[in-house]
Amino acid sequence: MNESYVSTRDLHDLSLWDKMRGKRALTSFDLEITARCNNNCRHCYINLPAGDKEAKEKELSLEEIGEIGTEAVALGAVWCLITGGEPLLRDDFSDIYLSLKKKGLLISVFTNATLVTKEHIKLFKAYPPRDIEVSVYGVSKESYESVTRRPGSFAAFRRGLDLLFENGLNVRLKAMALRSNLHEQPEIARFCKEQTKDYFRFDPFLHLRYDRNPSRNAEIMAERLSPEEIVALEQSDPERFQALAEGCDKLILPQSAYPPGNHLFQCGAGTASFSLSYDGLFRLCPSLWHPDCVYDVKQGTLTKAWQTFVPQVREMRSESREFLDMCRKCPFINLCMWCPAHAYLETGELDAPVDYFCQVAHARAAALHRA
Amino acid sequence: MKAKINLDATYVQSEDLVSREIEGELIIVPLVAGMGDMEDELFTLNETGRAVWAKLDGKKSLKTVAKELSAEFEAPPGEIERDVTGLAEELLKRKMIVKASKK
Asked: Which residues pair with A295 in a beta bridge?
């Protein structure tokens, strides 16, 4: 008999995705195992100081994370992103990683790479993550540390990144396009593409802090690029801009594409994934922090959050004429950072328009029209 | 090269993987490096493979597994034994099962 009994499949090729299509079914979740970070990046939406005792005390324990993982697996989750803050700050990172991995989850890790040790390498080589995504804030000490505001962080980043690459781990790189490193974007892109042939992305869209801290939010806004700068940056990456232009008919929507009604959530939040904060707060997506959209799993269960709470949130509606006539029907919504979650972080309301987002979306749409 | 299979031996699913059923699909997730050709890969089994896999509990010999399946599927024992051997060879080669006892 020549037929093979065992097949290998890439995650994306599993037939279960076809079975799940159109259903609300859990496939992945983000776990912020800490909000603390050893860097202090200007644009960061979450970081608290590495030594923040109060934040550390509130962090979910290894046992609590294990229970969350067990429930998530029972609900059907296949993939888990371990993120932070800086996840490697936790002394029990390896135990958390192994605990989730041994439940049969595919694991990705987001890290700034500055704390990678030989012990982490040993762990990742023995029990490989699906990928490790590292942020590149600059490729010179000056620009990198002007973002991270921590002397010595550039050398630590290069050392950690080299360790990951030298050991053949699956590393992906991403860059944030900020006011502080805009001058270095071409070099950052070149560096990333040289290091990883298959994947690199940059993100010029900065959203505000989860804790809505006004002074930190002011710092983030100061790092935002103008709509014209964002468009110019996108156009300077022919691959990215071509992809945008080719997907134009999906990005710029006809009026008929909008379902009638006044539901707030038109996005996929809570349909296939969830996010959990370091202290156990469940959200439908990482940025959705409106008090009516947050569920404390320490006071309940993940299963209840997923099965009962999520549908309640997705049923939320808006009576705001401004929202219903503007964002709810905007043909450029797929080019826009606007969503109820980001609207809340900007304005305190889930259904308020945001001028800056609007300007960026219109500038991007105009560039696509010209192309 | 094919792994040598002894039908009198008992095999058990390796502890270096987790098998999960999602939406009726059996997915085998390797935990350690070196099981798949690439780290991002998962394993699935065909229908015959699934039936055998479920019985690899470290208690029954492959011969007993084949006998049970032959009765369940009303298929000739020789044919089933060939399938069980074929699958076990593949699983052993990929380190997805280990010998539970020597006979």
From this structure: A282
Are residues A86 and A36 in contact, defined by beta-carbon separation less than 8 angstroms?
Answer: yes
Residue range of the domain that includes B83: 10-101
ipTM: 0.85
Domain ranges in chain A are 24-212+265-316, 226-259+318-371
Identify all chain A residues contacting B23, using CB atoms and an 8 Å cutoff. Answer: 16, 19-20, 25, 76
Residue B73 reports pLDDT greater than 50: yes
Does a structural domain hold residue B1? no
Assess whether pLDDT exceeds 60 at residue A3: no
Contacts of B20 in chain A (CB under 8 A): 73, 104
| Distance in angstroms between the alpha carbons of the first and the last residue of chain B | 23
Superfamily designation of domain A24-212+265-316: Aldolase class I (3.20.20.70)
pLDDT cut 90: percent of chain A above it: 79
Distance from CA of A101 to the nearest CA of B (A): 7
Predicted TM-score (pTM) of the model is 0.92
Mean model confidence pLDDT for chain B: 86
Domain presence at residue B36: yes
pLDDT tens by residue, A108-129: 999 999 999 999 999 999 999 9
CATH code where residue B76 lies? 1.10.10.1150
**Do B22 and A78 count as a contact with CB atoms less than 8 A apart?**
yes
Lowest model confidence (mean pLDDT) among A15-29, A48-62, A133-147, A293-307:
A15-29
As a residue count, chain B comes to: 103
Cβ contacts (< 8 Å) between A11 and chain B: which residues?
40, 42
Q: Which chain B residues are Cβ-neighbours of A105 within 8 angstroms?
A: 29
Q: Is residue B15 part of a domain?
A: yes
DSSP B28-69: EEE-STTSSSSTTEEEEE-HHHHHHHTT-EEEEEHHHHHHHH
Q: Which of A3, A8, A75, A124 to mutate to test the interface with B (most CBs of B within 10 A)?
A: A8
Q: List the structure tokens of B88.
A: 């076990």
Q: Does residue B4 belong to any structural domain of this protein?
A: no
Burial of B79 (0-12, 13-18, 19+ CB in 10 A): middle
Q: How many CB contacts within 8 angstroms connect chain A with chain B?
A: 91
Domain tally, chain B: 1
The residues that bridge with B26 in the sheet, in sequence order, are B21
Shortest Cα distance, chain B CAs vs residue A263, angstroms: 29
